[in-house]
Amino acid sequence: MQTSRWLGKPLKRKEDLRFLTGRGNFITDLSLPDMLYVALLRSPYPHALIKSIDTKKAERLEGVVKVLTGQELKDYVKPFRHVIRVPDYYPMALDKVRYVGEPIAAVAAVNPYTARDAVDLIEVEYEPLEPVVDSEKAMQQGAPLIHEGFENNVAWHRQFHYGDVEEAFGKADEIVNERFSFHRYSSTPIEPYGCAAIYDPASGNITLWDQNQQVGLYRARMAEALKMPEHKLRHITLDIGGGFGNKIGIYPYSAIVSVLSILTGRPVKWIADRREDLMSVQAADRKAIVEAAVRRDGRILGIRVKIIENIGAYLRHPEPQTVTRGFFTFLGCYDIQDVFIDAYCIFTNKAPTVPNRGYGCHPAYFHLERMMDIVAGRLGLDKAEIRFRNFIKPEQMP
């Protein structure tokens, strides 16, 4: 039998030296001649109509080169495409804001401080609308619609069946049910999101730098959004100062800096501050109702779950995988043969969600493991003992 040279062996890390000696190449290190720096004006409201935007004072500030609004940006981009039918998702708000922090305008200036000063000079008239931030309230008849033209706020609904759940519940000695909530959070890598772009008018090519963790797919989606052939977009991922899944999503910022480079003829860079990053990289909050069909000896025969996932104002790639990943991990290490999951993703006036560490798995494990504790308490069993009785046995493994 041939033994592996790799499995079970320690591997020498080869990338550490340049990071430890300060020779990493991050987006903040990128500097190009005549580079402009971007600051974004973001919505202070979770739900409001944009009645007017006055950028004249910002445009007159010394050092400001370009002020871009969503209406002007719309002429240069298409909505980001998704594989399922969802409302249009543009890089900046057009006539309505749907969450606190949604970009409304962008300023490109000779330095980041001037850009931020100019943002403060942009005057926006809003008409506040009733917000809805609770996913269950957003599902109710008559709830404020996040997206006009859609019948309700259900972004996505699927059911997952495995085995015969009705039979399992019919054989149960007891049915134990509980309701769970899982909060929003952010993995907060040490380096916030950032990107830079330069447009070459001679060739029509754009070179785009960022820290996206899904390079090939991101390039294809971004080229499509920029209305250009994929071969004309050169996408370079620099060193990433932490990702944890946060930098997999399709963010609007690369499209904004690319269009600003087209309009100004200069390289353009944007770096999020920590507050902006926290607005942009949230994991979904979830409510779940779990029912377990239980025998008196502690064996769990089947599980029924209703998941209500709050995905915020837009469903952006790669969502709804935060839910579908849980379909395949929900039973964890337990020998439970019958399961039914009824899953909803709901639009609300919270920020759109993105992958975060553990993506989709830990809410499922939280529901499952808390349920094991509750069942143990109901049956008067030790919490460890009920787990031993339900573990997958070694002989059941392939």
TrEMBL record:
It comes from the Archaea. Pfam families: Ald_Xan_dh_C, MoCoBD_1. InterPro entries: Ald_Oxase/Xan_DH_a/b, Ald_Oxase/Xan_DH_a/b_sf, Ald_Oxase/xanthine_DH-like, AldOxase/xan_DH_MoCoBD1, AldOxase/xan_DH_Mopterin-bd_sf. Keywords: Molybdenum, Oxidoreductase. SUPFAM superfamilies: CO dehydrogenase molybdoprotein N-domain-like, Molybdenum cofactor-binding domain. Residues 21-130 form the Aldehyde oxidase/xanthine dehydrogenase a/b hammerhead domain. GO terms for molecular function: iron ion binding; oxidoreductase activity. This is Xanthine dehydrogenase family protein molybdopterin-binding subunit. It comes from Caldiarchaeum subterraneum.
